Amino acid sequence: MLHTPAYAAKTAKASLEPYEINRREPGAHDVLIDILYCGICHSDIHQARDEWGGSTFPMVPGHEIVGTVVKAGGHVTKWKPGDTVGVGCFIDSCRECEACLDGEEQFCEEGMSATYNSFERDGKTPTYGGYSTRITVHEDYVLRIPSGMELARVAPLLCAGITTYSPLKRFGVKPGHEVAILGLGGLGHMGVKIAKAMGATVTVLSHSPGKRDDAIALGADDFVDTSDKQSFKTNAKRFDFILDTVSAMHDYNSYLGLLKRDSSMVLVGIPDPVPLSASSLVMQRRHLSGSLIGGIRETQEMLDFCAEHGVVSDVEVIPIQKVNEAYERVLNSDVRYRFVIDIASLREKL
Ligand code: NAP
Ligand code: ZN
Ligand code: ZN
């Protein structure tokens, strides 16, 4: 067993605090990764505070992991010590069901092994995430980080990047499309960059008017302040596609009204349930859909796409000791635009 410093929430009501976990020595098909950076996703907060129910504690969150392979098991063929790699939202799956065979492991019929707040395939060994100095992962669930990318700025691609890339691609976003990104946070700002790289005309829909200049600087063509209720009238039936990244309760019906006939809104944000009026969909034959991260193959495709288009996250790098403060700022929509933990700050405590 490898004693590993980490930060954990001991209960849903507790702040995160220093904690020690054990990582396994790499088996024949595993790699041991020294973690360099880990992004803070809003899902970390939802789960650490048990907002989705069923959380298990102590919890070491973190699923936007970038690091270096330091040890590879005897049968590992894909990686060698020194490789720069990533780990995203899951670290294993059954590998045999239709979803896994399709490369959509996130929908594994037996349930994926999420990177934290979950269990290994044995169903009993808890998984711990990237707010820790190292992680042992099966080689098939590791991603290649293209060379030349700034590593702290790459970490958020492992969740925020793939979660926005996957639906933008699946719904065929392309030049000429009027795309709206709803919510300018970690996911939203990646959505802006990726939709622009796909050639779309991009508008940010935000309830924070102070983010207007940032939205344009990130590459958006337009900004709509949704705290001004008039904006729902002036932008009615404007968009070909809306990607909804909002983490808190909001009225889907009013945003559906911004879609053109036959167009789609995809939810990636996971707030509490909100009432949906059938007429929001029926009247203009609109579609409402959802999307969950992406499989390993598509995550690699996204990383390569981002490298090719020079897309990385805008980050505020923090030491782990500031993680609780960062959570509060995320909850106040005060993140520009992803917090990333420099894991060196956890090693210094050794
Ligand atoms: P985030 O950085 O906190 O961004 C969320 C944004 O939502 C905020 O910046 C804010 O943007 C907007 N917002 C917050 N409260 C709002 C309110 N009351 N009304 C309207 N807008 C509000 O969070 P994130 O990390 O991007 O994650 C967003 C959501 O996606 C979370 O629910 C997370 O769990 C979920 N998620 C889903 C997947 C998936 O696979 N589906 C993957 C990762 C995360 P403005 O200030 O611009 O309005
Ligand atoms: Zn996430
Ligand atoms: Zn499966």
Please tag this protein with its features.
Quinone Oxidoreductase, Chain A, domain 1, six-stranded parallel sheet, binds NADP nicotinamide-adenine-dinucleotide phosphate, seven-stranded mixed sheet, 350 residues, 24% helix, globular, binds zinc ion, Rossmann fold, alpha/beta, 2 domains
Describe this structure in words.
24% of the residues lie in helices and 27% in strands. The chain is an alpha/beta fold and 350 residues long. The protein has 2 domains: 2-159 and 294-349, Alpha-Beta Complex (Quinone Oxidoreductase, Chain A, domain 1), CATH 3.90.180; 160-290, Rossmann fold. The radius of gyration is 20 Å and the shape is globular. The chain binds NADP nicotinamide-adenine-dinucleotide phosphate and zinc ion (2 copies). Residues 41-43, 46, 159, 163, 183-188, 206-208, 211, 245-248, 250, 268-271, 291-293, 330, 333, 335 line the site of NADP nicotinamide-adenine-dinucleotide phosphate.
